[in-house]
Specification:
TIM Barrel, 3-stranded parallel β-sheet, 8 helices, 3 strands, mainly alpha, 2 domains
């Protein structure tokens, strides 16, 4: 694993992190964040990567937090939750990510308006019923999964 890191490897599986001589022993403080594909549709990190990162106090940086191509944002439930809060579906998706300790998001922002809306999502407090409904519509993994990437 050390050779891979020296060669610039950036994808380290949790099995490697948990193992004796895991990533934290190999690179020490060199790991600053775990940058992963994470959104309502891609929740694979919740099974092992996210809990490990939180236990290690390693921030998780979610890329594509509002999905890709707009499919997720067209989801009927996501639209209903957004309408209840008078926000956009993208803001709900971001608020869902940002509700978690040590998780940050790097959403795409093509126009200044996107930047403003993304920043406002940090202020949105989703209710317990919203979170339960979203969990039903976008299920968390029940077993270890390969990390999704874009």
């Amino acid at each position: 694993m050390r050779l891979g890191i020296e060669m610039g490897m950036t994808l380290i599986d949790t099995a490697q992190m948990y193992a004796e001589g895991g990533a934290e022993e190999v690179v020490g403080d060199a790991i600053a964040t775990s940058q992963v594909l994470y959104n309502l549709e891609q929740r694979g990190i919740e099974f092992d990567v996210l809990p490990w990162s939180q236990q290690q106090r390693l921030p998780t940086m979610a890329y594509c937090p509002i999905g890709q191509g707009g499919k997720m944002l067209a989801n009927a439930l996501l639209k209903q939750v957004a309408a209840r809060h008078d926000v956009t579906p993208a803001q709900v998706a971001l608020a869902w990510i940002l509700r978690q300790d040590s998780v940050i998001a790097i959403p795409k922002a093509v126009r200044p308006e996107h930047v403003r809306l993304n920043a406002q999502a940090a202020l949105l407090q989703l209710e317990a019923g919203d979170l339960e409904a979203l969990d039903q519509a976008f299920r968390a993994p029940q077993h270890k999964q390969r990390l999704a990437m874009v």
